[in-house]
Hints:
The chain is mainly alpha-helical. Helices cover 62% and strands 3% of the residues. The protein is built from 13 helices and three strands. Helix 2 (17-24) runs antiparallel to helix 4. The protein is elongated, with a radius of gyration of 25 Å. 23% of the residues are buried.
Amino acid sequence: xxxxxxxxxxxxxxxxxxxxxxxxxxxxxxxxxxxxxxxxxxxxxxxxxxxxxxxxxxxxxxxxxxxxxxxxxxxxxxxxxxxxxxxxxxxxxxxxxxxxxxxxxxxxxxxxxxxxxxxxxxxxxxxxxxxxxxxxxxxxxxxxxxxxxxxxxxxxxxxxxxxxxxxxxxxxxxxxxxxxxxxxxxxxxxxxxxxxxxxxxxxxxxxxxxxxxxxxxxxxxxxxxxxxxxxxxxxxxxxxxxxxxxxxxxxxxxxxxxxxxxxxxxxxxxxxxxxxx
Length: 277
């Protein structure tokens, strides 16, 4: 396992490499930079870091040193507390440890909340159950008796888990995220270049502006909801076939349909008031 330069830089800021090295049984800068045994951060060294640094610096150091990847395998890391090999999960896999880990820099939202590779078709009920279980594990009441470092790690994990859940539960945000993972992101402010979609946008806007009753708006809402459901089904097929170009097109369309839905909701709150002549 190699200690990267960022981790070493943090260690120097903490109190100098000599203080850091002597605590871990390291006698030279060369020894620190080129490679260190897995137990470098165990025992006395970790305790000194806890006492001599801010908790944020310690969290940063733990995050940078512990990430590694097994060649040809899945992401894994070393638990900062028990030094056991563990997955990218929120908690250490060891039953005798179970320490809260730093937010993984390599795991995806799917890894943590669904335990599998990215897929657009998900079990939303299972997603919510996993979310609630993990949030309970890092809730302030659940970690109140743990060490200060674990309480801070729990706070970071809670924020990350919340964002992961809000992203995966929404089809549009899930599509955006999956495209980002494929380096094919669709920005929300991208200009529409598809003539057919552009024409549909203009016609829909005109229809909403011309609506004169709640019955007309209700009919438009029903049509738009149907279009949203159809587009989500098509996205499932596109991602299932790994057709990134089609997924990008459908994500833009779903983005537009969501905006239509918002416009309809705003009309329902009260149509625009016409200025008197």
